[in-house]
Amino acid sequence: MNVKSKIYKLFNMIFSIVFAVILIGTIFDNQSQIKAVSALPLILCALIIGVVVILMYTLCMYIGKKKLSDNTYYCGKISIKKEIIIFLILISCIIGLEIICGMKLRVSGERFDLINIISMADNIANNRNVPVQTEEYYTVYPDTDFIMYIMIFVYKIFLKLNLDKYNALVPGIVFNIIMVTASIITFYFIIRKLYNNTKALVMLGGIFLITPIFLYIPIFYTDTLSMFFVVMIYYLYLLFRENPNNIKKVIYFILLNIVAIIGIKIKSTVAIMVIAMYIDLIINSTSILFCVFAITYSIVTLLLGNMLINNSMNNSGYFNLFGFNSPTLAS
User: Fold this and answer.
1) What is the distance, to the nearest Å, from the Cα of residue 102 to the centroid of all Cα atoms in its chain?
2) Quick check: is 239 in a domain?
């Protein structure tokens, strides 16, 4: 085992231990709601998920079954035509379920920070006064400024399209559906690139088992809106790392950092993906000079991008604590 493999193994062990501790702590915490749930439903859910996983594996072997020279079988690629048909069917079902969950499970937001996002974006977009409690919220929690800044433009787009009779939740839900779907599609292409199109399709079918994706559709907040940037950073890094064309490498790396700037601004934990990228660059780079240059460029770009976004937000006037109620803010 070479040094690189040992380092990767060490990081895998560290992250596995950390995630295991977090998972066990979540499940067996004295205040966890899982203690109030009967064991029978949990066992049934586990069995159902197990059966579904087996069926998905069987489907994978059925649609992509390939025979090796030693008469064993593996899950190989399928034709592009079959892939497109199955992909469109699955993604249509996913979007349909997202729309149903978004409309049927929508909440007022009063129990979440969401109510402040809705209040600020909706009032500014419609040129109305912003409630005092909303002003106070952004004073205490400034880390949500950027997501509110984005949502103002989303709400204004709905107004420009003459959709001014909408429910105040609808623009956010529609935007959330777009972002979550984009995340799923990007993840599909990651699996397709790492493995093959058959396994990517099976993964796409497995999305239906991840209920939080659908249940969070009505709650357009940093948890779901940041998902796209996490997977897109990884996808662009794969393209950057594996493409032999130097010009394309530069383009992918620039795009990666632009995506990272926005993602980190929405949710700071997106930076974990960038740190992982730096670690991989250090381990796999054949040139120390290139590695140092790439990481330095990335850090400087992220810092400058953050400054530019902050400057844009400050110039917008939306965050002037003494000017929230000014009608000119929504002009």
Assistant:
1) 17
2) yes
Per the structure, the count of domains in the chain is 1
Residues 6+ apart with CB under 8 A from 310: none
A 10 A CB-CB count for 239 gives 18
Q: Show the domain range for 287.
A: 226-331
What span, in angstroms and rounded, lies between the C-alpha atoms of 137 and 131?
10
Tell me what the pLDDT averaged over the chain comes to: 79
Predicted confidence at residue 202, as pLDDT, reads: 83
Compute the distance between CA of residue 279 and CA of residue 285 in angstroms, rounded to an integer.
10
Does residue 299 fall inside a structural domain?
yes
d(CA 120, CA 114) in angstroms, rounded, equals: 10
Per DSSP, the residues of 254-277 read HHHHHHHHHHHHH-GGGHHHHHHH
Q: pLDDT: is 190 or 67 the higher one?
A: 190
Largest CA distance in the chain: 76
Task: Give the H or E element holding residue 75.
Answer: strand 73-75
Assess if residue 315 is contained within a domain.
yes
Q: 């623009």: which residue's tokens?
A: 171
Pair 172, 118: CB distance under 8 Å: yes
Whose tokens are 């054949």? That residue is: 286
CA-to-CA separations, 122 to 13, 38, 119, 134, 318, in angstroms, rounded: 46, 42, 5, 12, 13
**Torsion from C-alpha of 227, 225, 192, 302, nearest 10 degrees:** -70
**Do the domain assignments include residue 260?**
yes
What confidence tier does 329 reach under pLDDT thresholds 50, 70, 90?
very low
Under 8 Å between Cβ of 72 and 151: no
